[in-house]
Write a structure and sequence with these properties.
132 residues, two-stranded antiparallel ribbon, 5 helices, 2 strands
């Protein structure tokens, strides 16, 4: 038995040669266009400095603090920093506060429902039907 047919050997040779040739002109152009688009993903509206599309808010905040006069509004440089808090960069404090408020609201609602049931029972009403 042989180790493979000539068709398989020819296909493997074609793939090796294609790798040696590298990218085609169309692939190169598409790659450069994508790189240019990603490079100018975020732009400071005051000084027009560009940042990569994957730049995180702390990096953008650092730019505003370092490059612009003190008191410069974050939104005036980067509109996407509108609700971002530099003291809570991950948003964990805000999430914990929202969760605590929801729990507090649920507890007060449950307490309010207990009061309503107690007042019904005090008035002489029963909860369910009596069995005969």
């Amino acid at each position: 038995m042989g180790k493979g047919s000539n068709v398989q050997k020819a296909q493997a040779a074609r793939e090796r040669n294609q790798k040696k040739m590298g990218k085609s002109d169309e692939e190169r152009k598409a790659a450069t266009d994508k790189a240019k688009k990603d490079a100018a993903g975020k732009m400071c509206l005051l000084c027009r400095q560009t940042f990569m599309i994957n730049s995180r808010p702390p990096l953008l905040y650092q730019h505003v603090v370092a490059k612009h006069p003190e008191g410069t509004d974050l939104k005036s440089c980067f509109p996407e920093l509108a609700g971002w808090d530099p003291n809570d960069p991950d948003g964990t404090k805000a999430a914990a506060a929202d969760k605590a408020a929801a729990v507090k609201k649920a507890k007060s609602k449950a307490k309010k429902n207990d009061v309503n049931l107690d007042s019904l029972l005090d008035a002489g009403l029963t909860k369910g039907k009596k069995k005969k």
